[in-house]
Structures are given as structure tokens and as C-alpha cells.
Amino acid sequence: MSKRVLAAALTAVLAIAGCGSGENTPAGPRTLKLWHYEGPDSAMGVAWAEAIKQFEATHPNVKVAFEEKGFEQIQKTAPMIMNSGDAPDVMEYNKGNATAGLLSKQGLLTDISQEVAKRGWDKQLSPAIQTTARYDEKGVMGSGKWYGIPNYAEYVMVYYNKDMFAQKGIEVPKTLDELTSAMDKFVGAGVTPLAVGGAEYPAHQIMYQLALTKADRNWVDRYQRYTGSVDFHDAAWTYGANTFADWVRKGYVSKDSAGVKAEDMGVSFIQGKHPIMITGTWWYGRIAAGIKDFQWGSFPWPGMTAGSAGNMWVVPKGSKNKDLAYDFIAITMSQPIQDKLRDAGGVPLVAGSSPAASPQIKELTDTFSTLSSQDRLAFYPDWPAPGYYAVQVSAVQKLITATASAGQVLDEIAKPYQENLANVGK
């Protein structure tokens, strides 16, 4: 499809949806202020750049003022920014009770329920995907009003260096025991198996992944959606913390990783310094573009895994151009842009209109479909309580540096969770 035809198609879609210039739309040049934190060479960054081009092509009197922000930056400053006159018109934001849920409860996000029904986004997104877009009056996800639109999907998986595996004669692991055995062989050869970021994610996510190997859906719902009491010293949490600490002792995880940021972790894997990296699909496009000197692959984490709809577009309450924000969201959810995201290595939420660009990309999207259909997506460990991301990062750092026991770390994680229950009336 040519860009001219695509632009015409998108214009028709927007017109049918009742978008574009409405009765109360200001005349003359306008600006859409957009924030997101996807790198330009990531799958989402590539897709959103194309969406901006298509938006400007279908809105000739509008200029998109895009500002790239860091994930950590938005995570820490969003409440303050949303409560000021500097809020963007539309921004990417993290989903879950501790982030989007908290801002919705504080009245800082626009209730877009009416717009969702008008544009058919509720038909486009499956009930499971809608979980992270809807929040009740207490800021708890899963029901209530719509405060965002997820625009891609994601899950945590295992990336591996095929060449390093082949050199050691190691088969692709299919179970946790096989993964552990593979890491033992690398340690025996003087190689630290795991590329890990402990100063940010994903160290705390890896501990959660380990806990999930002993968990089920009921366990996840009690923790994430407050459907029952949570015991942070149960079999699953205890296994996760003890096993992560054991991985450090065995040399699977470098003690220096406590000071490593996620970006540096990814770069170290791309440079071939570690044979394994456990992290999200959001790295897929970056890895595919960055690795030049060796063959690599990926495989699913055995059992349940952290994952859900990806981050989502939200419209701040103070947005001055909400009509334009909705139009931009509609373009990012269009089939051509979702195909662009898929072929750049992302996981789309909208079914493709053409075959995937490669067998690897087809495998990536097929795996998400399998995880979703088998109910194996378990959200993320830092979602349940405000400020929980920093708490969990700090706690798991102590497992890496051996400055706290597994039990002490679980106590540290439990405290803010239990305190938050009072705030949500649970």
C-alpha cells in the first residue's frame, strides 16, 4: 500500500469515526504535544514515527511536537507534570494500579470511555487486554472507566546467543531445570551466563519470574487485583527470592549487576558478553537491529510469565487538544501501523493484514497468542502499589549484593503492599 493510499484510507477511517475537525474544533494551525519513551530504533519507536507522519498527512493544519522522555523520568515525574500546565496532549504511560490507576484515582487522566465506544476500541481489544486500560474509583485495574488505550503487547522471555550455546554443545532449554543446567555449564567455562540490570529492571522481574514457576492464576489475581490475602512468605515468593539469591551465589548473576542499568544490560548482550538475557519483547527489535557478529534466538519462559498489554496512550486531564489526541491514538491502532510495529519486532494488538516479515517475528506474535490463550500472562511485579517499582528494585539489589537475606527482602516488599491495601479499601 502506497503512502498516498494509506493516508487516504486513514483519512476515511477518521472521518467515519467522527474524528478530525468537529463543531468545536479551533480553526487555524494547531499543535499536538506528544510524549513517549520508546527509542527510535525500537519496534514501537519505528511505528510511532510512522504514525506521526500519517497523522500530519491527514491533519495538514496540525504539527506534532514530539518529545522523547525516559521511562524512569516519566515514572517519577508524571503526577507532578499532569498537575501542571505543561502536560502533553497525549502520552505513553505505564499501566497498572501503581501508575495509571493512581493517576486516574487522583483525577489526572481523562475518562475516555465515551470515545472508546465511539471509535470501537472496546471491540478491537480483547477482554484480557482491556484489564490494564480500565480502573475503578479506587484505581484498581480490571473494571470501571477507560483511562487509556494499550497500543502493543509484551511479555518476558529468554534471549540467547546461539553461537555461545553451540560452542558449549548446549540445547535450547525447555524447562527451568534445563536452563539452570545450561547456566552451570557456562559458569564452569568461566562465563557469567546472565546479562542483568539491577539498578533498574529486570532483576526484580526475574525474581518474580522464578516465583511464578510455583504460582497459578489465583495467586496472581490475589497479588495483582487484591482478590484475596497475600502471604509474601508462601512457597512461591520464598522460592523466587531464595532461588534468585542462589543464582547470584552460583555466579549466574554478576554481583556487579546491582549497579547496571537496563540499557547497559541490553548493550552487553548485543555485544556478546553474556549468552543469556531474561527480559521483555520490547527489546526484540533493538536486538534484531543491533546484533551483527553472532546468531541469536529466543524462547519462552517456562510456565507463567510477566506480560500483558504493553504501555498505553493516556490523555491528561489538562490536554488542550483532546480531539487530536484521539485521532493520533486511532492511527496508532490502525492495521497498517500495527503491521509496521510487528515487522519492526514488536507484538501487535491488531491482527495483521499481511504475512509477518520473517519467521522469527511470526514466532514472536504466535507465542503471545499462545500465552494469552493459555492464561499464562501474569502482569508485572511492581504494579500493585504506588512507588513499588523503586521499592522492588532496591530490595532485589540487596539479594545481588548479599546485604539482606531472602526473608528480609520479602519483608521489605511486603510492607508497602500491605500499607497500600488500606488506601484501596481492601
Q: Which homologous superfamily in CATH is the superfamily of the largest domain? A: Periplasmic binding protein-like II
E-strand count: 12
Instruction: Please state the overall shape, judged from the principal axes of the Cα atoms.
Output: globular
**Which fold name fills CATH's third level, the topology of the largest domain?**
D-Maltodextrin-Binding Protein, domain 2
- Radius of gyration, CA atoms, in whole angstroms: 22 Å
What is the CA–CA distance across the termini?
A: 52 Å
Q: For this structure, what is the CATH class of the largest domain?
A: Alpha Beta
Query: What kind of sheet is the major sheet?
Result: 5 strands, mixed
User: How much of the sequence is in beta strands?
Assistant: 5-15%
What is the count of distinct domains? 2
Using the 3D structure, state the CATH architecture of the largest domain: 3-Layer(aba) Sandwich
What portion of residues is helical? Answer: 40-55%
The total count of helices amounts to: 19
The average pLDDT score comes to 90
Chain oligomer state: single chain
